[in-house]
Fold:
Amino acid sequence: MRTLAPEFSYPTLQHPDRHVWDFWYHFAPDTGIFHLFYLNADRSLVATDAHHMSSQVGYATTKDFTTIEWVSDRVLGADPHGWDNTSIWSGDIIKIDGGFLMFYTSRDRATHDGMTQNIGVAFTHHIQSFDRWFRIPSIRIQPQAPYEPQHVPEDLTIHAWRDPFLFRHQEQIYMLLSAKDPTKSIGKKGTVALLKAKNNNFEDWEYLPPICQPGFYAEMEVPQLYKASNEEYALVYSTWAKYDFAPTTQQSGGLQGYFSPSMFDFPGENPEVILPETEQLYACRVIPELDGEIVGFDIKTGGIRRSGVKTGLQHVDRDFSSYSIEM
Structure:
């Protein structure tokens, strides 16, 4: 296993009023500021896990994940008049020509049993204009073959078609998603979907075979792709210990990964534990701007915390500045 020891103990950055969990970010190198987008809900809902059904996206800034400015707890919430009329779940943020795109997850309570997830997109001209995000109604990325198209009631966890992560390779735009594999057994359907943008227009997508389909997990959450220092690529994801059935992980859960010389082929036999769930962090992000340090949300208290564990992982191509979108 590639489990690493923390170099330092960091405080948890807690919101003064809200429970905070998953986050994603855009780093602005000219200012050294991390622009964070985070899931949040009323703290009173946490005891019954109801916060997941009431989550919205907030905005914050930080320079080092040791102090934080909580700017707004609501930049994107459920739209009662749209398909995304339930809670908003994890997403991704990219900079394009003329602004920023936020890919996010939601559900339509009127379809199936209200648990089947879709991906939506919102746009803003200025990332710090936290109250000026506009949904793009023409973009709704729905699950379809070769992935589980809707919630399977008898599964251990609800449907997964969420946590988008975008990257480029040879001028082509791709997206990773946490998904379910219909060919795997109940409780072990977790997979990482791979989509390719047709004509690089962000709206039409080709559904490729999974980038990884191990058959060991109920879910592979918040997948991300990085370059490893030894010329390999790293596919990392989070899984809860109770849903971790891999033969090489001792049911550790937490942040795990596969390493491969090919960025599109991660054989699923031997996953490695990078940061186990016992470290009390989940939905972790690798931060290449901080030597690949792992940062996640504090399982016990909510809020964001640095792990002190530096992986050395680096970004794949995430430069979308030459692309634009019609509004």
